[in-house]
């Protein structure tokens, strides 16, 4: 089964319902980049009438995570994936449609290849940027992912 935005969005409904009901949706997936969007709405806002930071975190983590899932599927091996650390930075009030991009697919591919070759776990840092409709950065996240081939 090929990973497509439609299939991933359906997966999210059943496996990550809080993200789904907050409006997190995958727009596109390629070998190296994933794009996820979320629109500021009543259900996902904070008291200051902007997108709640945790919803931004869900969308940004998903942008990096679907790239990891895609590479694991391609490797056709049992590989564990776990976020072991996260950092976030917020630079502008997030209102309207926010789009998160992660372009670290090659880094993931290299880490999985190395884990398969060595049998050792790999730590990678994936960056996800969130942009508003004007193209301004509203938030940036860095996720530390641990990847290891299961024996």
Characterise the protein shown here:
With 151 residues, the protein is of the alpha+beta class. It is built from four helices and six strands, in the order H-H-E-E-H-E-E-H-E-E. The protein has a single domain (5-149), classed as Thiol Ester Dehydrase, Chain A (Roll), CATH 3.10.129. It is 35% helix and 34% strand. A hairpin with a 5-residue loop joins strand 5 (122-131) and strand 6 (137-149). Helix 3 (53-75) crosses helix 4 (105-118). It is globular and about 50 Å long.
The backbone outline, from C-alpha atoms, is globular
CATH superfamily: Hotdog Thioesterase
Largest pleated sheet: 6 strands, antiparallel
C-alpha Rg (nearest Å): 15 Å
For the largest beta sheet, what order do the strands appear in spatially?
1-2-4-5-6-3
Q: How many strands appear in the DSSP assignment?
A: 6
Oligomer designation: single chain
Identify low-pLDDT runs: none
What structural class is derived from the secondary structure elements? alpha+beta
- Count of separate structural domains: 1
CATH class: Alpha Beta
Mean pLDDT value: 96
The sequence of SSEs as H and E is: HHEEHEEHEE
Task: Write a concise keyword list for the protein shown above.
151 residues, Thiol Ester Dehydrase, Chain A, 35% helix
């Amino acid at each position: 089964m090929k990973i497509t935005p439609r299939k991933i969005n359906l997966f999210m409904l059943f496996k990550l319902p809080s993200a789904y009901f907050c409006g997190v949706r995958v727009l596109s997936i390629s070998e190296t980049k994933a794009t996820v969007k979320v629109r500021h709405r009543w259900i996902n806002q904070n008291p200051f009438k902007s997108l709640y930071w945790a919803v931004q975190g869900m969308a940004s983590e998903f942008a990096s995570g679907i790239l990891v899932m895609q590479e694991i599927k391609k490797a056709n091996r049992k590989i564990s994936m776990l976020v072991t650390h996260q950092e976030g930075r917020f630079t502008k009030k997030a209102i309207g449609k926010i789009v998160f991009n992660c372009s670290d697919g090659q880094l993931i591919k290299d880490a999985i290849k190395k884990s398969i070759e060595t049998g050792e776990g790999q730590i990678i840092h994936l960056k996800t940027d969130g942009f508003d409709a004007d193209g301004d950065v509203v938030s940036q996240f860095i996720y530390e992912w641990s990847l290891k081939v299961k024996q």
